[in-house]
Amino acid sequence: MRRVTLLLLMLAAVSVYAQKTVKPNLNKALKSWSEGKLDEAKTMIDLATTYEKTMNDGKTWYYRGLIYASLDTTTNEAYKALAPDAFAIAIESFAKGDELNGGKEHFVQDAMGLPILKSTQMAYWGNGYLNQGATYYQEDELEKAVMSFEKAQAVQPNDTLAYFYCGFAANSLEDYDKAIASFQKYIELGGKSLDAYLSIINTYSGPKEDKEEALKWVRLAKPKYPDNADLPKVEIGLLIDLKRIDEAKSGLETALKSEPGNKILHFYLGYANSSLQNFDAAKKNYEDALQIDPNYFEAQLYLAKLMYKDAAEIKVAMSNLGISAEDKKKRFELDSKLVAKLEQALPYWEKAEKLNPDDQEVLDTLYSIYTDLDIQPKLKHIMSRYKELGME
Q1: What residues have CB less than 8 Å from 363, skipping those under 6 apart?
Q2: Which of 109, 107, 159 is closest to 129 using CA atoms?
């Protein structure tokens, strides 16, 4: 009986010992982390977050952030599998550690006993994601690049580069809302690159099809970059697209006072005057642009269109005539006028073809003029060009 009782007491003691709670040790957790034993470090720190004597200690959560940040960035797949959501846990842990530390900055000591501040560690961590994202971007793995840049933003919320790079990666993915939001945050944080503004402007002007918003951003950028010569031109182009021609014309005239030798401003002023049906003024503007640059195709094309305008109107009028004697007489009168107008416009279109012999609008118009004037050799030339360009 005494042996049985003694055995029972021994078993009870073993049972109590086996059930005894393991006390977490923050120093052991940190030591395991510094030695790269992330499995041991994770086990110890997880216990510390629920142990009454350490769960409200800011260092517990700071160390947890360090350990889970390492789990997120490790190349050891076995360790990485221990915490698939390691990044989110690390961010959450650092935040709680800061909250419990009353505004003081956490730190650990290096091998020499010198302190490494949390801010330094976060910068190192965030830069790692920036470099990772840049690598993914260069390898055209755009979704991974965006994810890396977004992690860098979460680690260092005030780092402008994280938002700048994310904007370009998202734009390449055609995730335009994310791209715009990233560039806006970059600007909000004090980013100085004009490229951020230009990307927003181009996105609104192009794929987002919101030229009013694009114009707003041009006007936000202009006072910040007063020496940039392109922003006023972009503004004028948007005003023309928005049919705010009078406003554009006024801006162009002002711009030309300071840049009289700018061919693009003369061209846009011609476009504005043409839109306002000030055709004589538009003709002079296009000619002024060509005087500055005789090879300026756009100016030559729009001048040719302007010179062809009367002929096009006559052709429409002739097509609307009937078969009465009066209509026949009218057609004969208009035909002579048409020939004169076509002969007047033809040299402008032929010059346009010399500047850009592959432009289909130019070739089509010349085909029409040569047909109307019955200039067979030149008509054959256009047919040959069609064949060469595969436009038959």
Answers
A1: 353, 382, 385, 386, 389, 391
A2: 159
Q: Tell if the pTM clears 0.85, that is, is over it.
A: no
Partnered with residue 109 across adjacent β-strands are: 115
Instruction: Kindly list the domain boundaries of the chain, sorted by start residue.
Output: 20-104, 295-392
Phi/psi at 75 (5° precision)? -95, -5
For residue range 226-262, list pLDDT tens digits in order: 888 788 888 888 998 898 988 889 888 988 999 999 9
pLDDT in tens, 258-311: 999 999 999 989 988 988 889 999 999 999 999 999 999 999 999 999 999 999
Residue 383, Cα to own-chain centre: how many angstroms? 43
Which fold does the domain 295-392 belong to in CATH?
1.25.40
The three state secondary structure string of 57-126 is: CHHHHHHHHHHHHHHHHCCCHHHHCCCCCHHHHHHHHHHHHHHHCCCCCCEEECCCCCEEEHHHHHHHHH
Report d(CA 279, CA 221) in Å as an integer.
Answer: 33
Distance of CA 356 to the CA centre of its chain: 31
What is the spatial distance between Cα 264 and Cα 269, in angstroms, rounded to a whole number? 8
Q: What is the CA radius of gyration of the chain?
A: 37
Q: What is residue 223's DSSP assignment?
A: G
Distance CA 312, CA 308 (A): 6
Q: Is the pLDDT of residue 5 over 60?
A: no
Residues with Cβ within 8 Å of residue 110, at least 6 apart in sequence: 116
CA distance 262 to 157: 43
Write out the two tokens for 100: 């419990």
Cβ atoms of 97 and 58 within 8 Å: the answer is: yes
| Residue closest to 46 by CA, chosen among 75, 26, 76, 21 | 26
Count of residues in the chain: 392
Dist. CA 284–CA 310, nearest whole Å: 17
* CB 24, CB 47: distance < 8 Å: yes
Phi, then psi, of 76 in degrees rounded to 5: -80, 110
Helix axes 176-188, 160-172, angle to 10 degrees: 160
DSSP, residue by residue, 11-72: HHHHHHHHHSPPPP-HHHHHHHHHTT-HHHHHHHHHHHTTSTTTTT-HHHHHHHHHHHHHHH
